[in-house]
Design brief:
Number of strands: 2
Protein name: IS5 family transposase
Order of helices and strands: EHEHHHHH
Distance between the termini: 40 Å
Organism: Streptomyces microflavus
Helix content: 40-55%
Strand content: under 5%
Number of helices: 6
GO molecular function: DNA binding; transposase activity
Number of domains: 2
Structural class: mainly alpha
Length: about 120
């Protein structure tokens, strides 16, 4: 799932390895953490209570506790707000577009609309 993530800087070709990935507890699976660790990406993902309980139940064989940067995790709301703005467009929220290409085109169109709206708000 995380293989398609790309980060673009203002100039140059897109980077394919961000410094950190912030996600909610739904992304705290062992597979996601392993993938990020293999690519030297910091995982800013809190641990689920049941995962922590299972790890503690194993004792010393359960491994060390998972820590995350709480300050960096708080900044993830910026992404959440953008996703909410994208989903305000009914076509994206309900996935009316069945082909991945047309859905991605809708995402690009909606992102452009948000960007233009933000530009107009800052210049006014």
């Amino acid at each position: 799932m995380l293989e398609k993530v790309r980060v673009r800087l203002p100039v140059g070709r897109p980077r394919t390895r961000p410094g950190a990935v912030a996600g909610d507890k739904a992304y705290s699976s062992r597979g996601n953490r392993r993938y990020l660790r293999k690519r030297n990406i910091k995982a800013v993902i809190p641990e689920k209570k049941d995962q922590a309980a299972n790890r503690k139940k194993k004792g010393s064989q359960g491994g060390r506790s998972i820590s995350h940067d709480a300050d960096l995790y708080k900044e993830r709301n910026t992404v959440e707000r953008l996703i909410n703005k994208l989903k305000a467009w009914r076509g994206i929220a309900t996935r009316y577009d069945k082909s991945p290409e047309s859905y991605l085109a809708g995402l690009h169109l909606r992102a452009s609309m948000i960007w233009i709206d933000d530009l107009l708000k800052t210049t006014a």
